[in-house]
Amino acid sequence: MKIFDTHCDALLKLQVAKRNTLFGGELLDFRHSTELDTNFERLQAGGVKVQFFAIFIHPEFPSDEKWQHALEQVDLFYSEILGKNPLIKHIKNWKDIDALQGDEIGAVLTLEGADAFGNDLTKLRHLYRLGVLSIGLTWNNANLCADGVGDPRGAGLTKLGKEVVQLNNEYHVFTDVSHLSLNGFWDVMELSKYPIASHSNARVLCDHPRNLNDEQIQAMFKNRGMIDVVFCPQFITNNSEPATISDLIRHVDHFCSLGGIRNIGIGSDFDGISSYVTDLTNASEFPNLINALQKQYSETEVEGFMYRNFLEHRPGV
């Protein structure tokens, strides 16, 4: 069964390793490095057909260095992921997914946090040209576009943030709400043609600010938004015991109970998490999730969660 995964942080790991070579460290080989949850061999073994790769810039970096960090990650996407793996194909527009051959894997470039371009929309347009197809306005911090879930002010979108959403609409690019403040979320609901929560779960089941409450969930479904369940244990259960696949599926069940059976997808957050769901520790173990879902849902429904729902909700469809 094909799998579309809408969030991983492999680019950040590749960048950190490359910078560490200045101090005697070694480059990571995307083809098979065991330090990468989403290396090529693991994507193949797990049946991943489309993998999203996030550009993420830590908010504590000086503002005048953030654009360079973003470009370094884009360069690694082109050189290490696309350049050294002929079976990985760059998805530059959503129709490219339909052209993937049987053994090919699509790679989508995304941006997690508008810090990379600051208030320079020329830089944003360069990112569109480089192939960025999904943009989250914030990480957990505040920036010039909006406040994130970790900022105590909790403000919504700025004028600039609203301009970015409108440009996303124009370019058929997702606006990602996974890290937005509550007020920012509602601003996006008013403006976005293509909302997505690339890696979020249900807050009623796990009271974490990164998760969505029921009102937000229903608004996403009403606006044809996708919610992609995330594998980070802290977003799955408040228990001290290790999170299980059954715990994760409870979030799928809840989304379905709110009418979202055709709006659910997968956003693993592999390579961005340091603890794991039992039996779901890297991309090669996706079949364990599929097998568990097939015990509760029909084959058609599970295919929806894994990839068909995304195909129906991608921009321009």
From TrEMBL:
One GO MF term attached to the UniProt entry: metallodipeptidase activity
InterPro entries cross-referenced by the UniProt entry: Metal_Hydrolase, Pept_M19
A biological process from GO: proteolysis
Matches recorded under Pfam families: Peptidase_M19
Highest taxon of source: Bacteria
Protein name: Diguanylate cyclase
Organism: Planococcus versutus
